[in-house]
Amino acid sequence: MKKIIVLVIVILFVGFFWFKGQDTIAPTPVPTEGTLTTAPAPVVPTTAVKEFTVIGSNFTFTPNTIEVKPGDTVKITFQSATGFHDLTLDEFAVATKQLKAGESETVQFVADKTGSFEYYCSVGNHRAMGMKGTLTVK
Ligand SMILES: [Cu+2]
Predict the structure, then answer these.
(1) What is the SS3 assignment for 53?
(2) How many angstroms is it from 77 CA to the middle of ligand 1?
(3) What residues does the ion ligand 1 have nearby, CB within 5 Å?
(4) What is the chain's pLDDT, residue by residue, as a tens digit (138 residues)?
(5) Contacts of 74 (CB under 8 A, 6+ apart)
(6) Is 0.85 topped by the overall pTM?
């Protein structure tokens, strides 16, 4: 009789630790609100097409701020008014050719990231001379 009681106790112990073990192996991480707010929001493409004309001259962009919504398709027509310029936006792999005064080129991309991004002229030191602007996606 004693042996059976010991056996039952052993089985209960083993069973208890087996369940404990399952608990520590199996937990599925449940995202809390805190982790959700720090994760970047997924950008869902919209059907909106936002068109802008940006004029480049020595040494400024007009306009030098552009704002769109996440997922928008952005169409920028860059015109060189004076001098020799381009429009480059690294984060979206956008760059026009280097254009002489009077030339223009249109680039298009989907604003699939949120934040502020600098577009600039990559000719010579034009960027350092102030030939830059900000695209805000929010
Ligand atoms: Cu330039």
Answers:
(1) strand
(2) 15
(3) 85, 121, 123, 126, 131
(4) 566 555 554 555 555 555 555 554 555 555 555 554 556 667 888 899 999 999 999 999 999 999 999 999 999 999 999 999 999 999 999 999 999 999 999 999 999 999 999 999 999 999 999 999 999 999
(5) 49, 50, 52, 66, 68, 92, 108, 109, 110, 111, 135
(6) no
Q: Residue 84 C-alpha to ligand 1 middle, in angstroms?
A: 6
Q: Which residues of 21-41 are buried (b: 16+ CB within 10 A; e: fewer)?
A: eeeeeeeeeeeeeeeeeeeee
DSSP 57: E
Nearest one of 70, 72, 52, 69 to 133, comparing CA atoms: 52
Q: Please work out, in degrees rounded to the nearest 5, the angle formed at the alpha carbon of residue 133 by the alpha carbons of 75 and 97.
A: 55
